[in-house]
Amino acid sequence: MPEHIKKKLHHEISLLEHELAHELPAEIKKAVAMGDLSENAEYHMAKQRQTFVNARLGQLKKRMAELSLVNLANIPKDKAGFGSTVVVYDSTKDEEIVYRLVTSEESDVSKGLISTTSPIGRGLVGKRVGDVAHIVTPNGKRELEVLKLITIHDEAAAAAAEVTVEIEEVEIEVSTGAARKSERK
Description:
single chain, 3 domains, 5-stranded mixed β-sheet, about 55% helix
């Protein structure tokens, strides 16, 4: 699971747990002190909020458990999947579009970040270069032809290669610097 998603979920969980354990009991206690609970709007609102917070905490903890089960080794190396960047040709709009397949927490359509659970994301998952995805969206049917695919594994390999090149450049600089010092003597 991406670390920033984990932090975001942990942060929301800790805020809600604090509210549930400290703020809401204080509100309920204050409302009870006002008297007749049958007509006490503050009491009813605090109890409704308590129910909502409990439900949201359950959702977040379940999502954390689901995301912790994601095994990047199970993501295909030659097909679109979580973390893939996919360049598609949309024949209905006659344009090329770049999508990155992400979790639902990260999705932002305006930035091309598409959830793997969205109609477009589900349609692209498992596709290879040259495949056509037929997708039904709320705006109608779309045909997306996969033109280019960069999987999460390709990106990791490229990043590792980049680090190797940087290390080699530093080693060359260090060795040529040492050679220059010995030439001066």
